[in-house]
Design brief:
Largest sheet: 6 strands, mixed
Radius of gyration: 18 Å
Helix content: 40-55%
CATH topology of the largest domain: Rossmann fold
Strand order of the largest sheet: 1-2-10-7-8-9
Distance between the termini: 35 Å
CATH class of the largest domain: Alpha Beta
Strand content: 15-25%
Number of domains: 2
CATH architecture of the largest domain: 3-Layer(aba) Sandwich
Structural class: alpha/beta
Shape: globular
Number of helices: 13
Number of strands: 10
Oligomer: single chain
Length: 318
């Protein structure tokens, strides 16, 4: 489990290096939005990466840091490496969005592209870390990473007196929703915590529902940051089982509509992975109001975003 004090320590540790991202309320629709697409690297992933790396012993950083990423965690790791003087190597899929790969490199990381998807990149990264004796930092399977992600919820607690009864959080490996879930244990009554994942790659959904991720499809998705199998034995698996009330799935069309909706209605540029909670609302899969939606990232290829926004130029009610 994640000790409560870990979240408070994480917030103190990373606050000088991150943004306190906006929390807004659409009163007409009854939706709160936590816009972590406006985080320093365009994603919540900076929280966990910074907390983990800054908590390491100096000798652990000096060995060099290795990770796997769909793009956002790698940016957080690159930033953490720059701040702490640690070299960072990121293993990523050959299919990772160019905007994310370029951002990792611009922050100083060495990026190695691997054929296949996230699972292949993670396997290659783990093997490289073991071979070179460098320090491995998982994107989700790490208590300090989870605690760092949970700081997002602490910011919300600090701003709201009346906490919304339902929270929608993107889920892949489970780091963010586990951190949020750990934070929500402070509240009584505790809000309902719902994870949202793409139908194209529903690994945590399968683990949550039937305790296995065998024979789960891993198809390309606009929510590229939510794809790929979960590392066997990940600490997030029992954390999700403990903290999460439900995990629901959204289609590619629903994700795209949510990306466009966020732009047309709120002027917010969000990526597919960050749009899944809003997609669940727009698709009528969650009807509770008020509801809090965590928008986890905004790193989307510009031409992809423009195409989606043209395709779904009309309005749609939430």
């Amino acid at each position: 489990m994640i000790p409560p004090e870990w979240l408070d320590t994480a917030l103190s540790r990373i606050s000088p290096h991150i943004r306190r991202t906006p929390l807004t309320f659409d009163a007409a629709r009854g939706i709160y939005f936590k816009w972590d697409n406006q985080q320093v690297t365009g994603s919540f992933k900076a929280r966990g990466a910074l907390n983990k790396v800054l908590a390491l012993e100096p000798w652990e950083r000096e060995l060099g840091l290795v990770t796997a990423s769909a793009g956002n965690h790698g940016q957080g790791m690159a930033l953490a490496g720059r701040l702490s003087g640690a070299p960072v190597t990121v293993f990523a899929s050959e299919g990772a969005p160019a905007v994310k790969v370029e951002a990792m490199r611009s922050l100083g990381a060495e990026v190695r592209l691997v054929p296949g998807g996230y699972a292949e990149a993670e396997a290659a990264g783990l093997a490289h870390a073991a071979e070179t004796q460098k320090t491995w930092v998982s994107a989700y399977n790490d208590g300090q990473v989870v605690a760092g992600q949970g700081t997002l919820a602490l910011e919300i607690f600090d701003e709201l007196d009346d906490i919304p009864p339902t929270w929608l959080v993107p889920v892949s490996g489970g780091g963010l929703i586990s951190g949020v879930g750990a934070a929500l244990q402070r509240l009584s009554p505790r809000p309902k915590l719902i994870g949202v994942q793409a139908e194209a790659s529903p690994f945590m959904h399968a683990l949550f529902r039937r305790g296995s991720q065998e024979n789960v499809p891993d198809l390309p998705s606009l929510a590229d940051g939510l794809t790929g199998a979960v590392e066997a034995g990940s600490i997030t698996i029992p954390l999700v089982q403990k903290f999460v009330d439900e995990i629901i799935l959204v289609s590619e069309d629903e994700i795209a509509r949510a990306v466009a909706f966020a732009w047309h209605e709120y002027g917010q540029k969000i990526e597919g992975s960050g749009a899944v909670g809003l997609a669940a609302l727009l698709g009528g899969k969650v009807k509770t109001r008020p509801t809090l939606v965590v928008v986890s990232g905004g790193n989307i290829q510009p031409e992809v975003h423009a195409g989606i926004c043209r395709r779904f130029a009309g309005g749609q009610r939430a």
